[in-house]
Automatic annotation (TrEMBL):
Its biological purpose: Catalyzes the NADPH-dependent reduction of ketopantoate into pantoic acid.
Protein name: 2-dehydropantoate 2-reductase
Pfam families, sorted: ApbA, ApbA_C
Family: Belongs to the ketopantoate reductase family.
GO cellular component terms attached to this protein's record: cytoplasm
InterPro entries: 6-PGluconate_DH-like_C_sf, 6PGD_dom2, ApbA, KPA_reductase, KPR-Related, KPR_N
Coiled-coil stretches: none
GO terms of biological process kind: pantothenate biosynthetic process
Chain ranges of the Ketopantoate reductase N-terminal domain: 3-149
Molecular functions per Gene Ontology: 2-dehydropantoate 2-reductase activity
Amino acid sequence: MAAYALETGGKAEVTAVMRSNYEAVEKNGIEIDSIEHGHDIKEWRPTAIRKSIPNVKEENLQPFDFILVTTKNIPDLTPAVADIIEPAVTAGKTAIVLSQNGLNIEKPLIERFPTNPIISSISYIDVTETSHGRILHDHADAQKVGPFNNPGVSSEVAEEAARRYVAAYNATGKLDVVFDADVKFARWRKLVYNASYNSVASVLRMDTARMRMSQHVIDDLIRPIMLEVVAAARANGVQLPDDVPDKVIRADPTENAFKPSMCQDAEKGNFLEIETIVGEPLREGEAKGVLMPTLRTMYGLLKGIQLQIKESRGLWEAKFISDNPYQ
Ligand SMILES: NC(=O)C1=CN([C@@H]2O[C@H](COP(=O)(O)OP(=O)(O)OC[C@H]3O[C@@H](n4cnc5c(N)ncnc54)[C@H](OP(=O)(O)O)[C@@H]3O)[C@@H](O)[C@H]2O)C=CC1
Ligand SMILES: CC(C)(CO)C(=O)C(=O)O
């Protein structure tokens, strides 16, 4: 959806890097059913489609102005985001936009690319790739875009890059995609949803409407996690208002059965974004003395699921390692 918005705005040319969907898109283009851009978009293609990350130096390419990262962010697996994008980054030039959920995702990027603007996009957009190259977009694209603090880049340069990205993305001015300098607030606010709904949905394989209809899932799991995240945010200097949990609980429409992105991954047998969405807020909160028992339990369950996925893909072997006290 980002490629579509950027290209159709007329201020950007997008090179889209695809993986499992490459062949399907190369052959048939992209089919989009979008609440905002139209329900019957067929055979759409961005300026370029690639099967691998462009290598700017080896291929003698012009530097990219922006790299928009829309992969899942799973630091407990390799390759890490910084390794994936490195060949396309031009030091001191390319701005890197992380349109990914979670906390502290900028840290490895700042370490690897100390002279590049690193930009945060917090996105509210329910998008599902229903099959390769087929996109269902059923919530208005709303984003808060702002610069992460990269000590090697001046705040003026970083802000200018973020504003330029917003201007290209929202060229028509019709989308709710806006500049917002308070990246820390936007990220913690979004985590109230993701740490709770994404993780509970992944364990229960349940959509958010059914959770609300059940009542107990909200009372016993969702609301307690939200309150723990709000307490962790406040302990870290982010004053989320008292009404955030109630607003976020009711954020999704109840007439369709929406499953958050992590649940979609669990159902596909894909790896889960556990560390950035659950592990990091847990560590940040507990480091400040906040008790987070519900989120800690979810973390343990999700790590168990991740281990099963790793084993099924041959990335974990069921054996004791030397310092394991339970053998
Ligand atoms: N879906 C949503 O509505 C929302 C998602 N988010 C966040 O946005 C981010 C992206 O989520 P989402 O769009 O759902 O993710 P998806 O898993 O649907 O899409 C990720 C894409 O990245 C590709 N990819 C992953 N690694 C590589 C690689 N090394 N090289 C090339 N391509 C790669 C995947 O390919 P392949 O299919 O081969 O794995 C897949 O096409 C996440 O951080 C998520 O939390 C935020 C708001 C809403
Ligand atoms: C809820 C949503 C779709 C944002 O709108 C999201 O962040 C996710 O599914 O991970």
